[in-house]
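Issue: copy button drops trailing tokens. Both records pasted manually instead:
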Amino acid sequence: MRIDREYGKRSEEDSLEPKIKYFIACEGRKTEYLYFSGINKNRVPLKINSLIEFVFLRHEKDTSNNPLSLYKEARKELDNYDNYFPDTGDQFCLIVDRDKHSFSENQYDSLLELERQEKVKLYVTNPCFEFWLLLHFKDCKEYDSQKLLENARTGNRTYVESVLKECLGGSYSKTRLKFDDNYKDKVHTAINNSKKYTTEVNELKNSLGTNVGVLIESMTE
């Protein structure tokens, strides 16, 4: 992994070091980074605290996207970084899917223990980040919750991806997330809709929901 401050740099006119840096490591290689880059670029209308800096921990080509391996690689990078100060409020945020096929219960429990030790802030969407994106458009109560949770794959798309594609007018790409066009004005709708499901990281192990909204709310002024 590598630390990338491209989207979190302060302007040269700034005279004060931001009080809190959010170091963000995502399981997905594109979608989540594009989303949070959009959050950062729209910090004023979204009322993101001006003293927060986004710092992305980005995948190298050989970086594993297994959540526990991702944590270990990101942790190693932070331990060798001289501008990470967790004692003064810096946050290490790990954003992952609760994909039961690649994220075992033992791995999940290990990350929960690391969070209890204040080594990381764990942000999980069950079943996948696309469910968080879907909440920008609707509360999803019209759908079978078990079907959403199982998120079966048909062809090259999962069930949640297919529903999201419909909401976007028939087109969805993980690598070309159009934040300004599709999500910017709906972030607070997504936060409110997410509160109709579990946002507790312990419960997200087996229940439909997400605590990504909790992360975004923690950034607001």
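Record 2 (pasted manually too):
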Amino acid sequence: MDLAPEPPAEPAAAPRKQPRDTRRQQLIEATIATLAHSGYARMTLAEVTRRAGLSQGLVNFHFDSKERLLTETLLYLAEEYRLNWTQALAAAGPDAAAQLDALLRADFNSAICTPDRLAAWCSFWGEAQSRPIYQERCGANDESYNRTVEAICARLMAEGGYSGDPVRVARVLRNTVEGTWLDMMTMTEAYDRLEAEATVMTCAAMAFPQHFTPKGRII
């Protein structure tokens, strides 16, 4: 699957009157697409408004500045990611293997694992000024995710009699997920979401062979 950002397209004319939340969402989605196409440093409000089909005055009305728009877009992506994994975890039930399976698959949910979103995340990761903002506003979310995966790994290790450190196993799984995301953005012939998911499941199978295969948890 080609994960290169799509070239800009001319937006359809937007209705003159739309709910405030709808316009705000349009601008954030347009910012994500602009980051994917142009990168952090070259992003302009003019390109964002063109993609959104709105006036630049509306950007200023909703976000005050380019920096505020970028910050709110980063926070939006972070909250979208948090909701994605917490909802997947809640739907998995109490079984530890089912919970880990759900969390790993959640990272490849087609709603969040898209070319534009991956490219936007890469833009933010590569921009030093965005990191303190993210840590201040979203660091607790990452800690919650990490502690959750570590606790699930500890339960699986106890169930299967596996040796090792659950904190390190959880870190390996997380780094594998992030590595496949980076592969999909940077490789000349990138593999697709399903292959990325299978790669991560292979890592889980190596850590928990009684509970996982490269296809996912053993039912």
